[in-house]
TrEMBL record:
Ligand binding (substrate): 9-16, 60
Active site (UniProt): 10 (tele-phosphohistidine intermediate), 83 (proton donor/acceptor)
Pfam families: His_Phos_1
Protein name in the entry: Histidine phosphatase family protein
GO cellular component: cytosol
GO BP, sorted A to Z: negative regulation of glycolytic process; regulation of pentose-phosphate shunt
UniProt lineage: Bacteria, Pseudomonadati, Bacteroidota, Sphingobacteriia, Sphingobacteriales
SUPFAM superfamilies: Phosphoglycerate mutase-like (SSF53254)
């Protein structure tokens, strides 16, 4: 059975604005600009007949798609969609030491060292394992033909690798910003990206600014 999945990243939070890593352990709210982003997304896609909504368990995803939830569309929270846990670096100011640690880890992951993680954090391989549950929900045979899925930046990169059968070390090939859209088609056997990093709904915000 064919399905269309609208995968978006949550709207902006104050930590996003400051360039601070959030991660799974930071249950932050979207900020005033994030509310405008969420509104812009809703206005653009409010006529899409979504059958189901999937979000992470973190409230910044709930807040981003709240207007769709308020319409009574069946909504499920999945821990598998939570952001990667960045461990000891979650919520830390973006100092030179933090930047260096982050860049070194990105280099390791890009070279295939996907088992590595920060202290008390998660590795890409561990995130993939919990995302597999959500993948099963996406491909199960039911009446849900059009799904809205709201999640997080790093987790989204990994999830798109999982859906498109790409190695996780290619996660950097999926750019994103707050409320960016990846529209994905499931043809009954495989997933295909039909809209890549779409931010057209944010153009009106840029014009207002």
């Amino acid at each position: 059975m064919e399905k269309i999945i609208y995968i978006i990243r949550h709207a902006e939070t104050d930590l996003n604005k400051r360039g601070v890593v959030q991660g799974r352990g930071m249950n932050t709210d979207i900020n005033a600009h994030g509310i405008k982003q969420a509104e812009a997304f809703f206005e653009t896609y409010k006529d899409v007949p979504f059958d189901k909504i999937y979000t992470s368990t973190l409230k910044r995803t709930h807040q981003t798609v709240q207007k769709f939830i308020d319409r009574g569309i069946p909504w499920t929270q999945y821990p598998g969609l939570d952001e990667m846990a960045w461990g000891i670096y979650e919520g830390m100011e973006n100092t030179e030491d933090v930047k260096l640690a982050y860049e070194n880890m990105m280099t390791n992951w890009s070279s295939g060292e996907l088992h590595l993680k920060f202290d008390k954090g998660e590795s890409p391989l561990e995130v993939k394992e919990r995302q597999l549950e959500v993948l099963e929900k996406l491909i199960e045979k039911n009446d849900a033909k059009t799904i809205l899925l709201c999640m997080h930046g790093r987790a989204m990169r990994l999830f798109l690798c999982l859906l498109t059968d790409k190695p996780l070390y290619e996660m950097g090939n999926f750019p994103h910003t707050n409320t960016t859209l990846y529209k994905v088609k499931y043809d009954g056997s495989r997933f295909h990206i039909i809209e890549f990093n779409n931010t057209d709904h944010l153009i009106q915000l840029c014009e207002q600014d």
